[in-house]
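Q: Got a minute? One more chain.
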Amino acid sequence: MELYRPLSAEEYRQIESMEFKGFPARSAGQPLFTALLSHEGASGIARHMRIEKQAEHKVYVVGFLVEDAYIRQFPVQNTDQPERRALWIPAEEIEILNQHLVGKIRMLDCFTIDRAEGDIFFA
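A: Always. Here it is, folded:
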């Protein structure tokens, strides 16, 4: 299954340092890893994502493939909003998710954000 995720510049650098082979562990207070089912939905969220004022003002959208047999255990969330349909993966599953990635994580979009207001969709 192909999934998509908006990323802060900091998270993108962490993935880059892992050679695009996996996602970093979630920080304390981040119980879920959210992956969207649509590129358009992830891009829409990225364009309106809240970032900290002192953070680099870039937001990325990545795409990645995950083995179907593994990812199907997670129910689809936000079913009433097609562009925001997502899978919520518990933070403690990130290492297991990384083991089920097919190929490398790909950067699809990069947006410059010039404000610190908007949706809090990803921390």
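A: Confidence is low (pLDDT under 50) at residues 118-123.
Q: Perfect, thanks.
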